Amino acid sequence: MEDIYESSLRAAIVRLLVFTALAAALVAADRRFGVVAQVRGHAATATEAVFDAAALPAGFGQWLYGAYLDREELLRRNAQLRRANVLLRAQMPRHEFLEKENRRLRRLLLDAGGGPSITLFAELAPVNLSRSAEQKIILSRGRADNVFPGQLALDAFGVVGQVTAAGLRKSTVTLLTDSSHSVPVQVARNGLQAVVYGGGVRGALSVPHLSQQADIKEGDLLVTSGLGRRFPAGHPVARVVSVLSDDRENTLAVAAAPVAQLDYLKEVVLLHRATVDPPPAAGDSP
Question: 110: which residues sit within 8 A by CB, 6+ positions away?
Fold first, then answer.
């Protein structure tokens, strides 16, 4: 038993001496050649790959999450841009319509000018007239807005007619195509004096009582002459569409069409110039 103990003790002492010698050798080598530092560096380099491999799943997960967030952000922005595009496309026709309306109203106001005047916009009232009154329109303005019988009504293209009745809040305009309506005109090209009469249907006007020697031809523009002080001069009324000679009467049969867009009226300008007779009193009948 003692032999076994002594043998183990000797073996332990031998190992201790060997490890001590190795340690002393390593200390001496490290102090002289830096062996331990080199070994430590190589070990650190080797462990870097292990750390990188261990961190790879986490890094991939973060990259995948970032890519998912970027995709979600792109989808969100794309949806916002798509909605904005739809909104702009939906609003574009309205903007174009409003721009056209703005140009039309500016033209309407400018065309009503020419001398000292007072202009008043009047929208058509939402009422339906009978067939017998189809050559008349009702306006949503009346005596309360200083509308009076005899006022000239214009659209952006020319003469529409004149006010023939004025109530407190509504007024009636008889179109120049009414068979009872007549307008003193002149040919814009040469100043030839004439009178335009309504034909009883929209789009139909006539210029009677012209001799065959009168200088008037198809395409001539007829404008108000200002005679009789009923209408201010210079406003477009009609354009000649045909000129036929009546040898039996030695006259011309002249047909014309209004330049005003009578079938598309939304509002008119009522014109009162200083040279026109003043309006009647509010109690006067039209």
Answer: none
